[in-house]
Amino acid sequence: MDDEGQQLRFIRLKAIVRKEFYHLIRDYRSLYLAFAIPLILIILFGYALSLDVDNVGTVFVDHDRTELSRDFIRKLDASTYFNVTENLPRTRDAVDYLDHDKAKVVIVIPADFMKSITADREIQLQVIIDASDPTSGNIIRGYITSFIKQYNQQILVDFLNREGRDKLNQPVDGRIRIWFNEDLESRNFIIPGIIAVIIMIVGAILTSLVIAREYENGTMETIKSMPVRAAELLLGKAIPYFFIGLADVLIAILLGQLLFGIVMKGNFWLMIISASLYLGVALSLGLLISILTKSQLMANQIAILTTYLPSLLLSNFVFPIINMPTVIQYITLIVPARYFIDILSGIYLRNLGLAYLWPSMLVLLVMFVMLSIFNFRLLKKEGL
């Protein structure tokens, strides 16, 4: 193509981009979705959504009431994981606390607690855990098991010290080290993961309206009569949202660091390139829905069902894919957010580079190319 043709193409593309920017500025609802919703999501997910279990409400029924049983309660209460609220006289009263969700754990200390320990006899401590939320129930069970194991170890050490004997060596000494998320804070994973949801909101849900709006307003026929090509229309409609999406990504990174202290361990520019690929997929999905539905209301509803919800539920963000049924695991293979979440985890927590992340990036690139070709052909069929 000669220079004049290329210049005309650029002028047409520039005109479409400018028109879309003007529409965005005038339409406060789109701007609200583009900037306010991401801000709300970051703050909401950062402060409210946590998979950690701390300060578990715990009540005791201490039938022994000796120095040793009080010491047991005191040590459990000193742990950051448990918060002892009551020491009740009867088991029935404690169960009432579980029934009314006033406590998550009930521990019943038998009457011969101290006597059995000092006589070196095994004693059964009853622990009742509220597992109406199975995830929390399993975590609490792990905490209790670990605490009792440490308590037993301390009793054994005290006994050996009193007897003047050396400490017995454990047959197996597990030296556990936590990598990538040393503090075991779910926030360190949730804040980067929310970037995937934000991009999908800005990319797919907003762009699902742009071409459908032209059909509803009757301006699509005018566009067809103009010397505008399908690729120019697609690019012109997508470019404003691409920059808005990137701005949201930068805002999320900045707020994550300033408000929650989440620092990216990996390469920043690799993150931006990956986010651009994922944003391209999201924009293409939104445009595809817009072209197929030709209705803003329907496009918006379909976009939420097919992009936003899978990004939240089927991407390994909130629920682990490995725990899902096999059929659902296969479905997650076509969810773009699954691959971007993998990239975010690699860059933010594991400090991985391109050598490890390229398979996920390649999948996003293939998705973007296929969707773009599909959109281009659909618009060509419309006469552009």
Strand content range: 5-15%
Radius of gyration, Cα only, in angstroms? 29 Å
Major sheet strand order: 2-1-3-4
DSSP strand tally: 4
- Taken from the alpha-carbon principal axes, the silhouette is elongated
Distance between the termini: 19 Å
Structural class designation: mainly alpha
SSE map:
Elements: H1 3-26, H2 28-47, E1 56-62, H3 67-78, E2 82-88, H4 91-99, E3 105-109, H5 113-118, E4 126-129, H6 134-163, H7 187-207, H8 210-217, H9 220-225, H10 230-260, H11 268-293, H12 296-313, H13 326-331, H14 336-348, H15 354-381
Parallel strand pairs: 1-2, 1-3
Antiparallel strand pairs: 3-4
Give an overview of the whole structure:
The longest helix has 31 residues, at 230-260. This protein has helices at residues 3-26, 28-47, 67-78, 91-99, 113-118, 134-163, 187-207, 210-217, 220-225, 230-260, 268-293, 296-313, 326-331, 336-348, 354-381; strands at residues 56-62, 82-88, 105-109, 126-129. A four-stranded mixed sheet has the order 2-1-3-4, with helices on both faces. The model has no long low-confidence stretch (mean pLDDT 85). Helix content is 67%, strand content 6%.
